[in-house]
Amino acid sequence: MTGRSIAVVLLLLGRACAQFGSTSSDVVARLRVRVTFGDHAPCNSSTRVVLTGAMGFALAEGPVNGECTAEFFDVPSGRYRVTVQGADASNADEGDVEVNSVVTQDLEVRAKHTEDSDPSAWTAHASFISVKDLGVPSNAAKEFEKASRLIAKQDWAKATERLQKGLALYPNYATGYNNLGAVYSFLGNNAQAREALQQAISLDDRLAPAYVNLGRLSFLEKDYPAAESLLTRAISLAPTENAEELFLLAYSQLTDHHLDQALQTSRQGHTANLNHHAYLHLVAANACEQQSKIADSMSELEAYLSEEPNGVRSEKVRKALATFQAQTAAR
């Protein structure tokens, strides 16, 4: 078989998405990111550090400790963007860093205090829904609106309190449970996140963002059949323009050996010309290879390189492509 080369690329890609333990030497075993402010002020308790890969997805996220340092383990080597988030914090520079294959690596990112935050920063990992709903009683609506403002500031703990108060006043609000589940996922409370999201779906079985959030949880737990089912349901309810959702679905389909479906999902992102969809070419390349369509697989790898010539996986993709080219020439 010729499937080993691309399979290795996708294995590394999957590990980067899940950020769970790996024994590969192509990682930094322990990555410490220290956040420093120009005014030497201490970190707010809400301050978090996010590592974003070449595709623009948040691949890992963690809170800072008392020394204003966040720790990550088994991080694949490559280039990342480090983003500082918090109730009153944002980046003071671009935050582009290089992670090397070492046992321990220390990095420093400069931050600044700010009163405003960019809502797009918190939509990458979890789907929140507007709380404006005519059916919500005014006293509960006030709590949900306060929660939305706290979410925009990434103040997850206080947002949780407001959402819980609002749901105590109006427990039949599916949107509130979805947002609570999304907040729990940011806090790393996956069991509580799953419970809240399932409650959202029990109240409204057509609430697409709740299926997306549950699908992300299943993907991170490597339950790919569940992730495939949930994300398929979400996209059937509300066709997405989010490349991340399509990637998670396509990767889950590939892992479940649903090759035709993985190809269809991958090409959906290309056809729509979504931002940051280049990684979908790697899923398509692997699916084609498993179907013995080597020429198609090579075309997908070339398409990836044309879109991400300097991506974190580009060098490995070039090696896989060179291997296929040599094998084809030898025939």
Query: Percent helix among the residues?
Result: 40-55%
Number of domains: 3
Low-confidence stretches: 14-24, 115-126
CA-based gyration radius: 21 Å
- Could you describe the largest sheet, including whether it forms a barrel? 4 strands, mixed
Q: What is the molecular shape? A: flat
Structural class: alpha+beta
- CATH superfamily of the largest domain, by name, is Tetratricopeptide repeat domain
Number of strands: 8
CATH topology-level name of the largest domain: Serine Threonine Protein Phosphatase 5, Tetratricopeptide repeat
* N to C succession of SSEs: HEEEEEEEEHHHHHHHHHHH
What is this entry, summarized?
The chain is of the alpha+beta class and 331 residues long. The chain is built from 12 helices and 8 strands.
Description of the molecule:
This protein is α+β, with helices and mostly antiparallel strands and 331 residues long. It has 3 domains: 26-117, Sandwich (Immunoglobulin-like), CATH 2.60.40; 130-206, Tetratricopeptide repeat domain (Serine Threonine Protein Phosphatase 5, Tetratricopeptide repeat, Alpha Horseshoe), CATH 1.25.40.10; 216-331, Serine Threonine Protein Phosphatase 5, Tetratricopeptide repeat, CATH 1.25.40. Helix content is 51%, strand content 16%. The protein is built from 12 helices and 8 strands. The strands form 2 sheets. It has a 4-stranded mixed β-sheet. A 4-stranded antiparallel β-sheet has the order 3-2-5-7. Strand 2 (48-52) and strand 3 (58-63) form a beta hairpin. Helix 8 (243-255) runs antiparallel to helix 9. The chain is flat and about 75 Å long. The model is unreliable at 14-24 and 115-126 (pLDDT under 50).
